Amino acid sequence: MSPAKDNVVPIDSKPSNRLDGSVSPYLAAHAHDPVKWRPWGSAALKRANRLDRPLLISIGYQSCHWCHVMQRESFKDPDLAGFINRHFVPVKIDRELRPDLDALYMSYVTATTGSGGWPLTVFATPDGIPFYGGTYFPRQSPDSRIPGLADVLDMVLRAWKLQRKETMATAEEVREYLSGSWETASDPLNTATVADAATALRGIEDPSNGGIGAAPKFPQAPACTFLLEFHRLTGQQWAMDMALRWMRAMLRGGIRDHVGGGIFRYSTDARWSVPHFEKMLYDQGLLLSTLAALNNHKSDAEFAHAVRETAEFLARDLARPDGGFNSSIDAETKGVEGATYTWTHEQLSAVLDDTQMAIATEYLGADETNLEEGLEFVVSRRAGREYRSVEVDEILALLRAVRDLRPQPAVIDNVLVSWNALVARGLIEAGASFGEPVLTQLGLSTIDYLVAQALSAGEVLHAVGDPSVAKVRLLEDSASLTAACLSAVILADRHDLLKLAIKLHSKARKQFRAKDGRMQVSAGDPLIPLMPVDQADAPTPSGAALFAENAARLASITTDTSYVEDAAATLRQFSRAACAVPALAGHALAVAAMLEREGLLPNHKS
Question: Does residue 274 have a pLDDT over 60?
């Protein structure tokens, strides 16, 4: 029954599968795999039921390095593909286009394995209930600790054929567990929750390197936002200091692209030195908003420089000619992760003279290689801009000119409404905080683009220009666009957008609020076997937390106190995360701190 032995029937020799013609770059990249992928939908589920086969659900995105690795190792392998085609119904999902499905299956994998990530690999019953899963599986097992995909396929197939009753019982347990985990806790977020969460974050700070915990390290903008709001609420200086350490360490490490601008998705080490090299649109927008909030507390020239570089990167590398921004930039260049971005001493010395090389060694991280021949490193700037900034900037410009001549990673052209709205908001907030009207105007033009392209009969689309998700409705898109409109109203005198913000918020309340009061991730797809509920903020603010923030801001703008009830009711669904893992409820906690500052949070103590 194993893939190595089950080679009786040759695989279909057709050059493409059901992904052929996909607008999604990720799905299109798998259209010529020998695996007979199908997109998520009724056809795939009906086929699984008709053939009595489990679903093999593979979720990823085009800028993901390990997604490419798994494709090359396994999904391009004819023997393995043949086994998959004969015994499973393989379904490929672009997580950028279907974050609701990703939320469902990621919740399962993180609950059962303790961690998550992409590629996400899940086996499910024909109606989509998961019963086994993980993330990246190598083609063959490298050791006893890590199963290979070939072994996993064999194990799952045996369980499906020989232990069906037990397998279906497992799936039913999963259904019950996930449904229970998404139930709203009885206790609301209150003043004690906010204080305890801030103390908990302080307890897990990495004081030497900034940020939370050890490796890997993510920007985690929502948690940083909470620290700033907690400082505004209480005046506790340590919260501000922690946020400043966090941001400076990140801006000076290799997770920031000092040569070309922008930040990468996360750092693989505790010092923020070596990034995972994809660049995501949402990280850039959240960075702009966070820097603006920090600057509002304490003006900082280094932050202003980072804002200008990030905006330049967005306009140069991710902006679309017709308006809006593309979703991401691939981690790989010609199959090698980070190939465009790394340097050796030999490469540096070919560009820089001796004086410049000495400066690069002292201020750009070249010393970390210990001059070992051929060893690659990522540019960092540990001293910030306090030392020899003019000379360092000149060196970085030289490196940029050379790097531009290298092969470049692909730009992924999904146009996602929520991520574009986060960038629009970030540009408007940064423009106001740093006195950069050009940024404000770019943010406003992005909102205008979204209003023109992403509204359909009063509802907000998820992606512009992709008919495969034309009926997908996600809370994150509506809430993010509403939040951007409110920032434009407050900071850029675009009072014409207030009416739209009120309308979008009201529509979201009706569209995404379940009967029990919880705000659901999505609405309108009857094929989702379990509807996820927004209960976490990472790496982006969740749609529900943004909905609560929008309600709080609308209450302030309109003086309509009914919006306060919206906010407080929605925050209840974050109480478990806020108490257990506050880093995963950062934006919700920030909203709670905002309400507490106004004396509107439940159990408020003056």
Answer: yes
Residue 58: which of 42, 38, 32 has the closest Cα? 38
514's tokens = 């379940």
What DSSP line would sit under 44-111, residue for residue? HHHHHHHHT--EEEEEE-TT-HHHHHHIIIIIT-HHHHHHHHHH-EEEEEETTT-HHHHHHHHHHHHH
The residues, any chain, with a CB within 8 Å of residue 180's CB and separated by 6 or more, are: none
Is the CB of residue 423 less than 8 Å from the CB of residue 279?
no
Rounded mean pLDDT of 439-447? 98
C-alpha distances (whole Å) from 221 to each of 247, 290, 440 are 9, 7, 21
The verdict on pTM exceeding 0.90 is: yes
pLDDT at 12: 43
The number of beta carbons lying within 10 Å of the beta carbon of residue 538 is 19
State how far the alpha carbon of 15 is from the alpha carbons of 12, 18, 35, 43, 468, in Å.
9, 11, 11, 20, 22
Contact predicate 511/473, CB 8 Å: yes
SS3 labels along 471-499: CCEEHHHHHHHHHHHHHHHHHHCCCHHHH
pLDDT at 184: 66
Quick one: pLDDT band at residue 209, thresholds 50, 70, 90? very high
Say what percent of the chain tops pLDDT 90: 86
Question: Token digits for 555?
Answer: 């209450």
The residues, any chain, with a CB within 8 Å of residue 519's CB and separated by 6 or more, are 475, 512, 513, 533, 534, 543, 544, 547, 570, 573
- Give the number of other CB atoms < 10 A from CB of residue 386: 8
Give the chain's end-to-end CA distance (angstroms, integer): 68
Between CA 396 and CA 389 the distance in angstroms is: 10
Max CA pair span of the chain: 75
Mean pLDDT estimate for the chain: 93
How many other C-beta atoms are found inside a 10 Å radius of the C-beta of residue 254? 29
| Residues 583, 220 contacting (CB under 8 angstroms) | yes
Give the whole-angstrom CA distance, residue 571 versus residue 364.
43
Q: Where are the alpha helices (DSSP H) in 211-366?
A: 221-234, 237-252, 281-297, 301-313, 345-351, 354-363
